[in-house]
């Protein structure tokens, strides 16, 4: 996994040592010798991770970290503070200004690489989501999601898997002081797996030694592998003081770890940081999902739109070339729809369009493509359909509209009919647009011959 790492230290030898280690593992290394330079390089070069010395002459690491986290161009870059002391007070101070972790000098290689890998994974996931999010934004389709932050009124849920019930209660008391966070269970391994499946907690805190002789690393990898907890925050509490254990947990997918003994505050600050990050990535993920959906779905009827239909037809055309079967393309247009809008109002018009799309869907197969092409014009494409099948289905669709009046919300019964133009695609056809055009021409003929009719395109 390649990545660019910015090493910040006022002592040249320290930078050199770190640079050599990282370069040997094929990381791209940038350097800065003071706080201001670190900030400038970070902004200009956008590294993936920053290793930040705390003791520096111009400004200390805490100040630099605050600057980085306060600037929109650099706030997303993970920061690992490098310190000579492992005093809990320093750790809490660093975490409070937004640092992701600490490494104590002299730096342990295992701890360094496990943490760098973990942060790179997280950052790459964010970069990818942001890229996709911006693509759907460029399509102009997700502006309505701008106020999505308001959705976050639900409390975050946390599940605990401690070494003992008493410890679980201590953690719970501490976590319950956080606003909008709720502890939903204190569990042993098996219980934890069950609860995670049904409750889908936002975060899970796992102690290295579990109750009832459970295996904590096994629990972590099981939780990571499951769809319900794949995106959950996981914090691992290391009790044997071994950095190797923490490194293993990070590589198995924990989001963060904390070494015992720790100040209660350290756990809640780490938890809050991780929950914030999760909320942000959840939001990006749903923006992407909704953006994609908006790009292909007609909001009124829930049917596919023209953009999707033309693209999907290309696939149907290709499949016909492989299978050697013909397929049917039907263009449908409600007769005299404008009159309904004019005399009954647009709400009634919308109701008719919705009811019509409903009746279409009831009369075609699941594999058939149904789309609203615009206005009162709809398309049905049936793969693997002969012209006999097409005749049968198009006639059924026509009758489905004629046979039963459309009732408005105010109780007015509207008699509506539809005209349908059909073209049969052959395995030799390769342009969906030609077939749509043919169906359109047939539709025009149906209208001209008196409406409420099915008309087939006549091959030349
Ligand atoms: Mg220094």
Describe what you observe in this structure.
- There is one protein chain.
- With 460 residues, the protein is α/β, with parallel strands linked by helices.
- It folds into 3 domains: 1-139, 3-Layer(aba) Sandwich (Rossmann fold), CATH 3.40.50.2300; 152-291, 3-Layer(aba) Sandwich (Rossmann fold); 306-456, Alpha-Beta Plaits.
- Helix content is 48%, strand content 19%.
- It has helices at 12-24, 35-45, 61-70, 88-96, 109-138, 165-175, 189-199, 216-225, 243-251, 264-296, 306-323, 337-344, 346-362, 387-402, 432-448; strands at 4-8, 28-32, 49-53, 79-83, 101-104, 156-161, 181-186, 203-207, 233-238, 256-259, 327-334, 369-374, 377-382, 406-407, 413-414, 418-425, 454-456.
- Strands 2-1-3-4-5 form a 5-stranded parallel beta sheet, with helices on both faces. Strands 7-6-8-9-10 form a 5-stranded parallel beta sheet, with helices on both faces. A 5-stranded mixed beta sheet has the order 12-13-11-16-17, sandwiched between helices.
- The longest helix is centred in the middle third of the chain and has 33 residues, at 264-296.
- Bound molecules: magnesium ion.
- The site of magnesium ion has 6 residues, from loops.
